[in-house]
Prior knowledge:
Layout: E1 7-9, E2 15-21, E3 26-32, E4 42-44, E5 48-62, E6 65-70, E7 74-77, E8 83-87, E9 94-101, H1 105-120, H2 131-141, E10 145-147, H3 152-168
Antiparallel strand pairs: 1-2, 2-3, 3-9, 4-10, 5-6, 5-7, 5-8, 5-9
Helix pairs in contact: 1-2, 2-3
Amino acid sequence: MLAPGTVVRSPRGTVVEVVENTPDRFRVRRELPPATGRTPSHRHTNGVETFRVLDGEATATAAGETRLLRVGDVLEVPIGAAHVHPHTASDAIAVIEQTIEPRPRFVEVFFGSWLTWLAEGRVDAQDEPTMLAVMAVIREGGGGTWVVGPPVVAQKALAAALGRIAARRGYRAVT
């Protein structure tokens, strides 16, 4: 599923292509149709995330600053910085290159799971995984990505409980 060259299309029109997958780096190219790509504010404790706009425009937030990103713009999110992924307005499209360095185990589990659910149309209105699905990923992937707000210890406990519920509802993390 995560071999370079793998392409996944959602019923809504999001296209994700795996460009690179090594222990040092994970990179995907994402085509975002209008009104997609927005994630809850979150932070990573195990990797730097970089977004480069290849086409169109998108809005993103990092470290409390919201920016409109256009072709050629780069947004680097340092470890621990709260951020919201680039997402499109209702009348905009974008092509984004997303890189995560290094590539922790959580990234493998998250993207393997998300791309499976994306192809099946089992995602939210933004073509992102539902919160219940994310709990399944955290439970199996060991965390490293956390929603801004609730303490991490509480999120770990929720992931253990909600991950089991997610599995019973068919959201099984790809490991």
